[in-house]
Amino acid sequence: MALPAKFRLYSYQHNGQYLFVSNDEEGDDLVVEAHPYPDEDRNWFEAERVNPDEDFWVRLYNPSTGRYLFVSNDMADGDNIVEAHPYRDESRNTFNPLAQGDGSFVFWHPDTETYLFLSNDQRGDDYVIEAHAADEARNRFVAKE
Question: Which of 12, 36, 89, 141 is most buried, by the most CB atoms less than 10 A from its CB?
Answer without folding.
Answer: 141
